[in-house]
Structure formats: structure tokens, C-alpha cells
Amino acid sequence: MRAFLIVLLLLLPASAFAQVYKCKGKSGETMYSENPCDARAEPMKLREHSVPTPVVAPAASTSEPTAGEEPGQASESASAAAANSELEANRAAERTCIANATASVYGPSNDRVSTLQQQMTMLGEQLANAPDAERSQALRTRMATFRQAITREHGNAHTQMTAARQRCLDMHRPAQTPAR
Q1: Which runs of E-coded beta strand occur in the chain?
Q2: Environment class of residue 120 by beta-carbon count within 10 Å: exposed (0-12), middle (13-18) or buried (19+)?
Q3: Which Pfam families match (predicted)?
């Protein structure tokens, strides 16, 4: 799941995030956050995912055809330029929507997982000093419960992000017209 999060963060445009910080938790786990975890946290340098820019026809300043243009071609060029401009605006809005959804889903999820991992670390320390087998078994059982909770949290975050990504696509992609 962490690999998925890393890939996702690298694919999103860096400009959509103010900053992304890579932090180490108390038990050594890696977390990503919009806020610095401590005074030593350094912002990550993310690669921007380049999106090919479509060729945009130059907008005609008048509806009069220029030399070599047939009547009506100037208005077609202007229409094509407007359509490309709208398409680019929709793509930018879609990327922003996905970036905001990513931060709102994975930020709180990472915080909850971090808390669970800290509790597991404390249980691990207690297990190392457990006086008897019965106490050791109780601690192992509780740690297994925390592991299951972490797995559920990752699954829930992934499900929420998939739904949010689809909502962003639905909101910002024009409806496809059926081919005739």
C-alpha cells in the first residue's frame, strides 16, 4: 500500500500540493503528510507528471479568411482553439480535484495508521518484558488486532480514493457522444 501511495504522489502534479513531507514514525515506518512531522522534516521534491499538450490551432483575430483560407475556416480554427482551451481547463480542474481528494483521504488515514503503529510499538515493548506466557499471548492477540485494523484502514482509504478519483473524472470530463 505504501508503494501505491508513493507512486500516486509521484504521478500527481507537484503544483497541486503546497508541500509533501516524508516522515519517519517512532517505530521506523514511513509516512507522507502535508504538514511537517517534526523540526527535522524536509519537503520532498516530486517529479511533475507531464501531460502532453495538444496542438492548439491559433485563434483567428477576425472572421475574415486569410490568404489561402477558404471562407468558414477561420471560424473553425477559432472553434478548435476554444475547444482545446476548455479541454485543458477541464484537465487542470480534474488534476486539482484528484490532488485535493488524495490529501483529504490519505492524510487522515496515515494519521490513524501512525497511531495504530505507535500502539503496536508500545505493545511490542511490553511483550519483550512480559513476565509470563499468558501475558505474552494476550499482547500478541492485541497486536494482531492492530495489524488487522491497519489493513482495513489501508483498504478503506484505497476504496475512498478510487471513488473520489471517479467523481473527479465524472465532474471534469465531458460526456462522450456516441459515434454514428
Answers
A1: 21-24, 30-33, 42-43
A2: buried
A3: DUF4124
